[in-house]
Design brief:
Helix content: 25-40%
Distance between the termini: 22 Å
Number of helices: 3
Number of domains: 1
Radius of gyration: 14 Å
Structural class: alpha+beta
Strand order of the largest sheet: 1-2-5-4-3
Shape: globular
């Protein structure tokens, strides 16, 4: 289901990295998903932002539009947030980031 994220995570296992870094997937209360993945090497410095729809924020009462997605690289992490039906699209956005980084 989320192949690109898992493949990147597993490819970086080196006996050290996975003990303090890695992939986190959480459900959120709006309802939706939050994905955080620590990046290695030059990808940590990459700039990337990708969004679909209107994600929850203070300007829309933290509701967002029906389907929404917001992904970006911040402080060496790929961070993806999405509505509950869009987890796979976070993976698609990560694959897009990897193809450009």
């Amino acid at each position: 289901m989320i192949k690109a994220l898992f493949e990147y995570n597993e490819s970086n296992f080196d006996g050290t990295w996975e003990h303090s870094q890695g992939l986190t997937i959480k459900s959120t209360d709006n309802p939706g998903w939050l994905v955080e993945l620590d990046l290695k090497g030059a990808r940590r410095e990459a700039q990337f932002t990708y969004h679909i729809g209107d994600f929850p924020s203070s300007r829309n009462g933290n509701l967002g539009s029906g389907d929404w997605l917001h992904c970006q690289v911040v402080n060496g992490q790929f961070i993806g947030a999405a509505s509950r039906g869009m987890l796979k699209e976070i993976d698609v956005a990560f694959a897009l980031f990897m193809s450009k980084a």
